[in-house]
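Hi support team,

I'm opening this ticket because the web form for multi-chain structure prediction keeps timing out on my end. I have pasted the exact lines I submitted so you can reproduce it. The total is 510 residues across four entries, so I didn't expect it to be a heavy job. Is there a limit I'm missing, or should I split the entries? Thanks in advance, R.K.
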Amino acid sequence: PAAFLATPGEGPPSGTVPGWACEGPGASGKNRRVCHAAARLEMGSLWEEFNRLGTEMIVTKAGRRMFPTFQVKLSGLDPSADYVLLMDFVPLDDKRYRWGWGWGGMGARGPRPGGAEPPPRPRRYAFHSSSWLVAGRADPAAPGRVHFHPDSPAKGAQWMRQIVSFDKLKLTNNLLDDNGHIILNSMHRYQPRFHVVLVDPRRDSERFAHENFKSFSFPETQFMAVTAYQNHRITQLKIASNPFAKGFRDGEPEP
Amino acid sequence: PAAFLATPGEGPPSGTVPGWACEGPGASGKNRRVCHAAARLEMGSLWEEFNRLGTEMIVTKAGRRMFPTFQVKLSGLDPSADYVLLMDFVPLDDKRYRWGWGWGGMGARGPRPGGAEPPPRPRRYAFHSSSWLVAGRADPAAPGRVHFHPDSPAKGAQWMRQIVSFDKLKLTNNLLDDNGHIILNSMHRYQPRFHVVLVDPRRDSERFAHENFKSFSFPETQFMAVTAYQNHRITQLKIASNPFAKGFRDGEPEP
DNA sequence: CGATTCACACCTAGGTGACAATCT
DNA sequence: AGATTGTCACCTAGGTGTGAATCG
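Hello R.K., no limit was hit. The queue was backed up. Here is the completed structure from your submission:
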């Protein structure tokens, strides 16, 4: 799909709003069966907690799931129409990064602009002052794959019935992957993107393709692809919040 | 669906046979997109091995999977048409059974006709001479539920691509079950039945419902529903062939 | 007394980060 | 030296029959 980004969290609130004309930014020229579509990101506070530290996602040759899992609650679909749900991943910039020492003061969140090397720092400060640094221009873009939700296609009523979870989606750094996984470049930043596509029963529906889908990007889900965790705080938060990593927890404060 | 039983293993062999007229027993009056459908039972030799001993399937309150799992290889579908696949279970008679001593000579397979009590036997013969005896008329029939294959609906091409497995299907004896499981009466005999239903895009498609499906019954998959295994040979064969029961195996002769 | 239920040990199947080894 | 790979112990999640307890 073309790179149209709807404004997440904006637009009509949850639930269909009868009589609404599909106008305003991102809605014009859309089929009436998709223009009212709304998506609410689940586990938003967890995503934000990761995002404050600078989310990292592991990529492996065999494919690794995301954590947190990308899941949304949908509303505003036509209950009796067929939809395909899918995800893709957009490079956030054309840079390559590395984890290392910096001048401090900026925190771990955004990457520091510019690419000059910082001076070495006393060892005792190394941990807290480490951050993501630009290491050059991006590597050649990986094959731009998409991941279809395995329940696709399905009726709007079915998609809205419960939370839609993309827990089968896996990330890989293997450019020759033939398992259908999403291929990403390690040490590059990405923005997950979610698409609702109306299955158009009309003949020549290709000619209406541009108006038959609606896309959602949630900034708090952006991440750095890595082959091994760099920020130790990210590791600790993953261990604390991912049930499959329970084996690495120390004391258990509260359920 | 109505109780039409196709002859399993008969009809056109694997693969679509272009130009075939849909005639002969079980094919007349059927839509041309279903009349060529053929289903081959997978793991046939395992099913037959169980059937020779008298297959038993456990039913529990929470729901129990079948073993062997009912799986088929489909052919003869229209690759571009939509189909729904489903299963139901037909009582094989209107009798209730119990496991106990018999006169011997008949083997463990079929239930003994008549209901008179056999005389007691020496203890050392009890095991080999036990068999299923009629214990009276059937209990009131359980709610007649069906199990839709979770991938339904899907294109004929998708269904024919690989083996279709009903491993999510569960059997229960709880008449008030609200998990959508198949409800069966314990100590009653059943015949699993498999249905291929064409999704008819025509309006008023209900009026064509009788010609839009084709059904398959494989006699070697019939079984007795039980809450605990009665025939010790069945228990041993389950343990020997079900990977999840590996913990109960003694010596491992061969892979 | 036969039929059913339940907690349990023991599996399959697969998702974690740690860590040592290896690659570039 | 930094990035990547592969193996591993340790989890989650859930499918087995067992055998004691309970039901009717």
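A quick check on our side: Residues 60-61, 98-100, 173, 186-187, 226-228, 243-248 of chain B lie near DNA strand C (CB under 10 Å from a C1'). Let us know if the file doesn't open in your viewer.
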